[in-house]
Amino acid sequence: MKRNFDFLNSIENISEETFSELVKITEFKRIPAGTKIINYEEVPSKIYLLVSGIIRCYLSTESGKEFNKSFYLPSSFLASLTALIKKKPSLFVFETLSDCKIYEIDYSELMKLCKDNPSLKNLHIKILEKVYFNYEKRLVDLISLNASDRYLELKKLIPNIDDMISQYHIASYLGITPVQLSRIRKKNKRNEAI
């Protein structure tokens, strides 16, 4: 638990008492690969802190085609944020790509605690800011970078991504086909060899 306390304190200083209150509304879970922790059209009530493993967030069309919106790595907070705040059905699915360890936090209880606790409210704000910064960077990358550069940016973020996530999911995240991704990888390997 000390590691979790230290992690949260690296974002915002909170007291041990505040941390104890958080622990009361939090549940530790081990989730097997391939588990949907938030389903399409489910009204979510939890936020998650990923301790180990990889989770993807995706949107599925009526025809069944999937578009990966984001990948989450350890120390990431995740939620279907708009659905959670508005108490509406989620447009996204969150699925574990590997066995994962997570902390599940009751959102409404967290909001009650934030009302009376300025340090917890500040922690919440800083986490939301970080989430927003990540979304903004993703949007800028999609608009301004070509597929090859988007792949290189993703490799900077997740250096061993090719060993961790299937080519299909990476291609979907980049907005290209698996064949295009294969060509980009080959070109990059040739460039690295030079």
Automatic annotation (TrEMBL):
PROSITE patterns: CNMP_BINDING_3 (PS50042). SUPFAM superfamilies: cAMP-binding domain-like. CDD domains: CAP_ED (cd00038). It comes from the Bacteria. Residues 10-113 form the Cyclic nucleotide-binding domain. This is Crp/Fnr family transcriptional regulator. It comes from Algibacter agarivorans.
